[in-house]
Each structure stands twice: as C-alpha cells, then as structure tokens.
Amino acid sequence: MKRRKFIQNTAMTGIGVSMAAVTVACGEHSDINTKKTNKSMNASEETSTKPKPIAICTWAFTKANEAAGKALSEGADALTAAIAGCEVEEENLKNTTVGKGGAPDREGNVTLDACVMNPQGDCGAVVCVSTITNVAALARKVMEETPHVMLASEGAEEFGYSQGFKKEKLLTEVSKEAWLEWQKTSKYKPIINIENHDTIGMLALDANGDIAGACSTSGLSYKMKGRVGDSPIIGSGLFIDNEIGGAVATGMGEEIIKTVGSFLIVELMRNGMSPQEACEEAVRRVVAKNKNYKDFQVAYIAINKAGSTGSYCIHEGFTMMKYQNGINEAVKSDFHHSS
Ligand code: SD4
Fold it and tell me: What residue stretch is flagged as signal peptide (predicted)?
C-alpha cells in the first residue's frame, strides 16, 4: 500500500471546532492510531470562527465540484450547492454512470437513483426513475414536499411531473449501442474503476458551517431490472449529521449497504476519528467481510464539522475532488489493495 497522503486529505483550512478525544477500536491496522487525530487539535481552535466553504465529491468530476464550490462561494446553502454539483453530471450525456446518458439495465432501461440529506437531518430519495434527469433535485422535492423519505419508479416520476420536472428519454444512442454490444455476450462483470463505479456523491460545508450532501447515479451498468444500490439509501450511500460531518459512498452498492458505510463513517467521526481514519475503517469493514474484495471497488469520502476531509478506497484509482478558496483540486485517494 502506498504511503498515505494524510496531510493532503486532512489539512485544516479553517479554524475548527475541537472534538472529543475518544479512543476507538480501529481494526487490525495499528498505524491508524499513530495518525494525528482530532483530539490533537488545540483547545484554542474551539472558537466560533467557521471554516471557509468546502465542496468535495467522488471521482474526478471537476466541473461538478467546481459548480458546487462556486455556488457555495456565492452564498448558496450546502444542500443547494451539493445538488447543483450533481446536476452537472446528471446532464452530462458523456457520463454513462449518472443521469441522462447513463448505462441502462439489462432490459435497456436507464433507471436512476438519488438521495439528499440536509443539515437538519431531513432526507429524501428516489429510486428506479426512468424519465427524469435531475434526480437529486427530485429527491429534494420528496424531502420538502411530501411526508415521505423515498419514492420509487412511476410514483416518483408522476410526483416529479407535478413538481415541474420534464419527462425525458434517458437512453442516448451511445448508451444504446454499448448496451446492444453488451447483449452479444450478456456477461455481467463489474470492472473496477471503469464504467461501474462513477456515482457522484457530493458533500458541502457552507459559509454558515452547515453540512449537507447529495448522491446521484444510474447504478451498475446492465444491472437486473429493479436493482437498487446504496446510492439512494440514507446511511449507506450518504449520511449527514450536521453536528459531526458527512460521508458519501461509491462503488459496489451491495457491499456498502451491508456495512451501512456512510452512517458508519459519521458514527466513527462522532467517536473521535478523523474523516480519513473513519473512511479507512469503513473500507476495512467491507474487506474483512469479503474474501473476494479484490473483485470490486468501494470508496468513501467524508468531511467533518471543522472542514477536515478524508477519502479511502479498496483499489487504487479513486479520486476525490476538493474545492476551497477558489481552488478545485483532485486528491488521489489512498487505497487498501494495490493490484
Ligand atoms: C450502486 N454505488 O448503484 C452505485 C454504483 C456506483 O457508479 O458507484 N456506480 O451500487
């Protein structure tokens, strides 16, 4: 495993809030305890000064992260910024893993999943949406305009039209051709870091110091009809606790769901881990439960209330984008397994 770029990921960019020093079980890797944790933060850092706005997202979605970061700089709240970031990829026809242009299921239908969570702890989600592009925004509407958390397929779509969302065809010619090509063999084998793992998960910390997040995906390419992954599942694909921080996932949804990865990361941060440590522990939980972990990717990113960030994955090749102070940078993630 490569030496961790711990400093890069955890650099404090604003004056933070000191968190409780709690010792937690960190699994088999002893090096985790040697890292600087939040408990080493100076007590004088406990101040009302808030960190500067930060946007982070999964993968090298440069434009999406920039859109979210700029929105924050212009005063947008964390949730609005996170959704604005997701929209860039939902509308990017070249992206075959999010929104319009996403790869279809094995029947040829593109079905999108998304969820959002705000600083108040409210959340909304949609699953198996096949006619609306901006599903993160739709999930927000479910949160704000219905008494429910999650709507599925036609119910979500009909609700979306009533809220002014356009009915669209999501399968592009390019995705259709790729699907027809796939049908020649119909072999389903997720390919690490390529088409199957490019969900956009966005976390934003706004000028008020509030944290929110959004997650949007077309799920696994050529999945079974009706299959839903972690991305729209609160606690698995995304979790926010505005007192602590937030986390979001990408990769093999089934494994993320089994370990409730994003909720786990926030709870580990609550117990004193840095975002980096918490992401690493969450990946280790997946690895510990799977002898075949070399065959799939799982990656997490996280942010805490003080503005520290972290990312970690099973396989090399995952990147987190980070926008702060007008700088949008790609942070190469450390990884568990070197292939
Ligand atoms: C899923 N987590 O549906 C998603 C997959 C992913 O780009 O990350 N896709 O399981």
Answer: 1-20
- Residue 165 structure tokens: 């969302």
- The tokens describing 264, both together, are 């786990």
Assess whether 199 carries a catalytic annotation. yes
CA 151 to chain centre: 20
Distance 44 CA to ligand 1 centre (A): 41
In terms of Cβ atoms closer than 10 Å to its own Cβ (0-12, 13-18, 19+), residue 290 is: middle
pLDDT tens track for 102-153: 999 999 999 999 999 999 999 999 999 999 999 999 999 999 999 999 999 9
pTM of the model: 0.86
Please report which helix (H) or strand (E) contains residue 275, including its range: helix 275-289
Residue 65 near residue 323, CB atoms below 8 Å? yes
With beta carbons less than 8 A apart as the criterion, state whether 80 and 55 touch: no
Residue 248's beta-bridge partner residues? 238, 301
**pLDDT digit string, tens, across residues 219-269:** 999 999 999 999 999 999 999 999 999 999 999 999 999 999 999 999 999
For residue 96 and ligand 1, the question of a CB distance below 6 A is answered with no
Backbone angles phi, psi at 203, to 5 degrees: -125, 135
Q: Between β-strands 54-58 and 298-304, what pairing exists: parallel, antiparallel or unpaired? A: unpaired
Q: Which residue has the tokens 């990312």?
A: 311
The domain spans of the chain are 8-15+43-337
CA separation for the pair 128, 53 (Å, rounded):
32
80 lines ligand 1 (CB under 6 A): no
Fold designation for 8-15+43-337: Glutamine Phosphoribosylpyrophosphate, subunit 1, domain 1 (3.60.20)
Question: What DSSP element (H or E) covers 180?
Answer: helix 173-183
